[in-house]
Amino acid sequence: MRETIARKRLFRRRKKKLGAIQQKILLLLLGGFALSCSRSPSKTLQIIRGMHETWKDIDKQVADRAIQALYESNLLEQKENDDGTLTLVLSENGRKRALTYQTRNMKIPRSNIWDKKWWIVLFDIPEDEREARDALRDHLAYMGFFCLQKSVWVHPFNCKNEIDFIVESLAIKKYTRLIIAEHIDNEDHIKRFFKLD
Predict the structure, then answer these.
(1) What is the domain extent for residue 30?
(2) Which residue has the higher pLDDT, 59 or 183?
(3) pTM of whole model > 0.70?
(4) How many of the other CB atoms lie within 10 Å of CB of 192?
(5) Percentage of the chain surpassing pLDDT 90?
(6) DSSP of the chain, one letter per residue?
(7) What is the mean pLDDT of the chain?
(8) Residue 17 predicted with pLDDT over 70
(9) How far apart are CA 79 and CA 64, in angstroms?
(10) For the chain, how many structural domains are there in total?
(11) pLDDT for the residue numbered 10
């Protein structure tokens, strides 16, 4: 039992310590890139550098270590191609992790004038998809939603694009609804939360 708890703590610590280059790799893969690699590390580096301008000054050893660490953390999966090259893609855990980094830059735009409408996210995600459910809650909290109930979150401004992105990325569309409401009973405390008049 103690060993299991210790492993979970170690995994949590590792989870928090992805470096900037590892985060960039995850985000590139989330953006639809498949990282095709040859058996040669120098060829892999050429591919990475060609993907984006920000990679032009990357150190070869740092890139190799970053990719290896992501693979060992089960955030990447490799598929062998007919020509002997490998393609690295995000695993399910890697996709969720990359989405976390993506949403750190995602904010709900605040209008100067509130239209007095509430955007309500409701979800009923089954227990066997608990990781996706927890990830959705984390994203909603990070983006500043108000938690009305565990599976009901509220925002005063249009958040359709952001919610669509998260729901599609987590593959939970069938469990999630977005509702626009004109009134919530006892909404004064929600208005105070968002600093609305």
Answers:
(1) 2-94
(2) 183
(3) no
(4) 10
(5) 32
(6) -HHHHHHHHHHHHHHHT--HHHHHHHHHHHTT--EEE-SSHHHHHHHHHHH-GGGTT--HHHHHHHHHHHHHTTSEEEEE-TTS-EEEEE-HHHHHHHHHHHHTT--PPPPSS--S-EEEEEE---GGGHHHHHHHHHHHHHTT-EEEETTEEEESS--HHHHHHHHHHHT-GGGEEEEEES--TT-HHHHHHHT--
(7) 77
(8) no
(9) 17
(10) 2
(11) 39
> Using CA atoms, how far apart are residues 45 and 35, in angstroms rounded to an integer?
10
Phi-psi category of 126—alpha, beta or left, where left has phi over 0 and alpha has psi -120 to 50? beta
pLDDT tens for 65-86 read 887 888 888 888 877 778 777 7
CATH number for position 22: 1.10.10.10
Q: Report the pLDDT value the prediction gives residue 4, as an integer from 0 to 100.
A: 45
